[in-house]
Design brief:
Blueprint: H1 2-52, E1 55-57, E2 62-64, H2 67-71, E3 81-86, E4 91-96, E5 110-112, E6 115-125, E7 131-140, H3 142-216, H4 222-252, H5 254-258, E8 262-265, H6 266-283, E9 287-293, E10 297-300, H7 302-318, E11 325-333, E12 336-343, H8 365-370, H9 377-387, E13 391-397, E14 401-409
Parallel strand pairs: 9-11
Antiparallel strand pairs: 1-2, 3-4, 3-7, 5-6, 6-7, 8-10, 11-12, 12-14, 13-14
Helix pairs in contact: 1-3, 3-4, 4-9, 6-7, 7-9
Length: 413
């Protein structure tokens, strides 16, 4: 349990930190690209300003003097494509690298063959203020794109290495954090185990003494009636001790270490358990219905899964009033088996649902004690499901009933 919490803490720490890193990386990439694009546009605007002063207009046509000399003065000027258009948008002159021979009306990147380009144009006017043409300058985004790609690659490699480093650091951090919890859990488990073992002897002694006294006392006598109360209390104590010892074994995963799991048909186990409960349900005027029962072979511990079924059916029996119904179904689903037990009982309040698998938790404490419940039944069910790598879900509405849905992988142990 502590190990799974440690791994969960590590995963949460790494995932949170990594998501923050990815968010900052994405934001940094956007800002970096935006800054480079802004610099590129500034160079185009500077070239436009300088070259517009060199445009000559003789009243009929436009011409551009010495564009090469001016473009070379700018850092990326040698890569510039310069075009001069008349008022109708027809190309008059073109200088520098090959660019679009048409006026480009977008402020964003545009494609010219395999190249990505940025373009800006300036409307030209005569001294009288009449519109006479356009000056257009284009620059390729190759250098910007290469810089962005290098930045992304560098940050990607850094992210990968950081992910590995964070995973190691997170696990070490989680291990140190959970060490006191693990120590406390081990002490508690050892105490519970010792207490259960120590209780075995007095409980067995009480049971033996009761058996001896039963032979000496009349059942109808007052002493005989009191003896029956002691016998029932002793039986309850014995069941509690056995449940505690089972929980300790399941929690310590000794089942995996000391026993080999077997492959069997879960349908047969369900049918056998339903047959065992048939008379008990009939006595309380409850209908026990086997719905779809698929033949599903799984690998696990048969006796533990039998206990899971027994506890769930016993729970439904206790909390379903006469005239009610309990439905059981078993289906093959995905990579395992889906076992569903649905009753029409009193249901579980919503605030109690997160607690029902805790040890000694009772939804209806008075009723549970009256019927001999220890509060360990569902805790054992959860431990058995965890042992088999499965999952259990509960849906319940007060007054309408409860549905327990168990998913067991074909080979989860």
């Amino acid at each position: 349990m502590v190990r799974s919490q440690r791994l969960r803490l590590t995963a949460q720490f790494v995932a949170t930190t990594f998501c923050i890193y990815i968010g900052l990386f994405g934001l940094g990439l956007i800002i970096f690209k935006s800054a480079l694009t802004s610099s590129l546009d500034s160079q185009i605007e500077t070239l436009l300003t300088q070259l517009s002063d060199e445009v000559e207009y003789d009243g009929n046509s436009l011409s551009l003097a010495k564009p090469r000399r001016l473009t070379r003065k700018q850092p990326m000027g040698v890569l510039a494509a310069v075009q001069l258009f008349n008022r109708d948008g027809s190309l008059i002159q073109s200088y520098g690298t090959q660019g679009s021979h048409e006026l480009v009306d977008t402020l964003d990147d545009f494609k010219l063959g395999s190249l990505s380009m940025r373009s800006r144009s300036l409307s030209l006017s005569s001294e009288e203020g009449a519109h006479v043409g356009y000056l257009q300058i284009q620059l390729p985004t190759t250098l910007r794109d290469r810089a962005v790609s290098n930045y992304a690659t560098t940050m990607g490699v850094t992210a990968f290495l950081g992910f590995i480093a964070l995973s190691i650091a997170g696990y070490v951090f989680a291990r140190r954090t959970t060490r006191p919890i693990e120590t406390s859990y081990q002490i508690l488990r050892q105490f519970t185990a010792d207490a259960a073992h120590e209780l075995n002897t007095p409980v067995a002694t009480i049971a033996a003494a009761v058996e001896n006294l039963k032979e000496e006392l009349e059942p109808e006598s007052e002493a005989g009636s009191r003896l029956l109360v002691i016998e029932r209390a002793g039986a309850r104590m014995d069941k509690l001790v056995q449940d505690l010892m089972l929980l300790i074994r399941l929690g310590a995963e000794t089942e995996r270490r000391l026993r080999e799991p077997e492959t069997f048909d879960l349908k047969i186990l369900v049918e056998e358990t339903l047959a065992d409960f048939a008379d008990l349900y009939a006595r309380q005027s409850l209908e026990l219905v086997a719905e779809t029962l698929d033949s599903v072979k799984i690998t696990g511990f048969r006796d533990n899964l039998g206990r899971l079924l027994t506890n769930l059916l016993d729970n439904a029996l206790k909390y379903t009033d006469s005239g009610g119904m309990v439905r059981v179904s078993l289906r093959s689903e995905g990579n395992g088996a889906r076992l569903v037990i649905k009753d029409t009982g009193s249901g579980i309040p919503e605030e109690s649902l997160p607690e029902i698998f805790n040890r000694f938790y009772r939804v209806d404490k008075a009723r549970s004690r009256t019927e001999g419940g220890s509060g360990l039944g569902l805790a054992i069910v959860k431990a058995i499901v965890d042992l088999h790598g499965g999952q259990i879900d509960v849906v319940s509405s007060p007054g309408k009933g409860t549905t327990f849905s168990v998913h067991l992988p074909y080979n989860g142990v």
